[in-house]
């Protein structure tokens, strides 16, 4: 049976178009045509793609069971995030391995809605640990990297790690995208990491050396590198509206990826660490930011309405750019033949409905 959805503005993942009629059958788009009439929705966009999502509300990705991860996926879909990487952060290797096994099994069995893999953030970090436990940060372990399963799609490590080139090379051989984060590298270390195959930077401006007119910082090097993808937490707490606008001005042509960096702020893990939401974001008792409580859809809305980012750029940063960054060709864009995986936004840019794919997007 055919289903028709109409909108005043249609974003295909790259470009914003005028009014369109979208027809889908059996979960796949069969027609996208101009529309003249009263539309059902203000904006239609591809479902949002979040490549850094540690949890949400009571769910903590690293410590959740398969059933809990399924419930988390269903919750995220209602919020507009239809594709995501379960992100786990610095911990002892055996603990990380257990988390990876749980998520990997759930993804392989198609049991976690929207989850297409794992982002391992740490433990091979550097001089800007942020909320990561410094006692768990260790040198690159090539043996541990070698045994990572195929559903690990992204690893964040620091460019100043002694064995970083070998580690990056091994990850790339396994088809894993590599991001530089929690790092304060010098220029040579940055260049070596890039040459070895690192193609992303984790949460621009946060957990890194910054921008100075006489010093090279990681943020400056990333912004000046036309080819590198940069993640950016869009809650406007981690990064000021002015810095967000700067990042989009420089990288908004398809190399900027909005991320939520949400955590399970009401989970037992957060309670044990005395994490609570203060001044708009989860924080450790000493005030250190410990992730976000802002969904990716809300990040899109905030960067547009409060930071002045053009809607087309903000939507691109939440759809096709993150998909491209981790090598997913079947999400983040809307075209005939693609799966019906999209969201509707009202004129205030709140998500009003989500259409989620009907089959797995692994591979």
From TrEMBL:
Which residue numbers delimit the Amidohydrolase-related domain? 44-347
Record-level GO BP terms: N-acetylglucosamine catabolic process
Task: Give the Gene Ontology MF terms in alphabetical order.
Answer: metal ion binding; N-acetylglucosamine-6-phosphate deacetylase activity
Q: Which UniProt keywords apply?
A: Carbohydrate metabolism, Hydrolase, Metal-binding
Gene3D superfamilies the record matches: Metal-dependent hydrolases, Urease, subunit C, domain 1
Q: Which InterPro entries match?
A: Amidohydro-rel, GlcNAc_6-P_deAcase, Metal-dep_hydrolase_composite, Metal_Hydrolase
The entry assigns this protein to a family as follows: Belongs to the metallo-dependent hydrolases superfamily. NagA family.
PANTHER family assigned:
N-ACETYLGLUCOSAMINE-6-PHOSPHATE DEACETYLASE
Please report the name of this protein according to its UniProt entry.
Unannotated protein
Record the organism.
Answer: freshwater metagenome
């Amino acid at each position: 049976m055919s289903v028709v959805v109409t909108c005043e503005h249609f974003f295909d993942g790259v470009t914003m178009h005028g009014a369109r009629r979208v027809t889908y059958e059996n979960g796949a788009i069969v027609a996208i045509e101009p529309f003249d009439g009263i539309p059902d929705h203000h904006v239609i966009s591809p479902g949002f793609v979040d490549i850094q999502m540690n949890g949400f509300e009571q769910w903590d990705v690293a410590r959740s069971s398969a059933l809990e991860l399924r419930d988390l996926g269903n919750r995220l879909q209602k919020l507009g995030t239809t594709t995501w990487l379960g992100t786990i952060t610095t911990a002892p290797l055996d603990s990380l391995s257990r988390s990876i096994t749980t998520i990997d099994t759930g993804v392989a069995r198609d049991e976690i809605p929207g989850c297409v893999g794992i982002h391992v953030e740490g433990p091979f970090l550097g001089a800007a640990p942020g909320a990561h436990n410094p006692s768990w940060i260790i040198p690159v372990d090539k043996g541990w990297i070698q045994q990572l399963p195929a559903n690990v799609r992204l690893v964040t490590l620091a460019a100043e790690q002694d064995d970083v080139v070998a580690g990056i090379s091994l990850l790339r051989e396994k088809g894993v995208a590599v991001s530089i984060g929690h790092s304060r590298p010098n220029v040579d270390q940055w260049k070596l990491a890039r040459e070895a195959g690192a193609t992303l930077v984790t949460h621009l401006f946060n957990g890194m050396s910054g921008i100075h007119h006489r010093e090279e910082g990681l943020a400056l090097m990333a912004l000046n590198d036309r080819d590198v993808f940069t993640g950016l937490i869009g809650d406007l707490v981690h990064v000021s509206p002015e810095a967000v606008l700067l990042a989009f001005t420089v990288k908004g042509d398809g190399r900027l990826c909005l991320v939520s960096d949400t955590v399970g702020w009401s989970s037992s893990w957060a309670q044990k660490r005395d994490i609570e939401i203060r001044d708009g974001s989860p924080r450790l008792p000493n005030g250190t930011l410990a992730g976000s409580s802002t969904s990716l859809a809300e990040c899109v809305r905030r960067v547009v309405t409060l930071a002045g980012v053009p809607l087309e750029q903000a939507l691109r940063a939440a759809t096709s750019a993150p998909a491209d960054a981790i090598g997913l060709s079947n999400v983040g864009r809307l075209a005939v033949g693609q799966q019906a995986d999209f969201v509707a936004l009202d004129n205030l840019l709140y998500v009003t409905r989500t259409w989620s794919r009907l089959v797995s997007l692994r591979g």
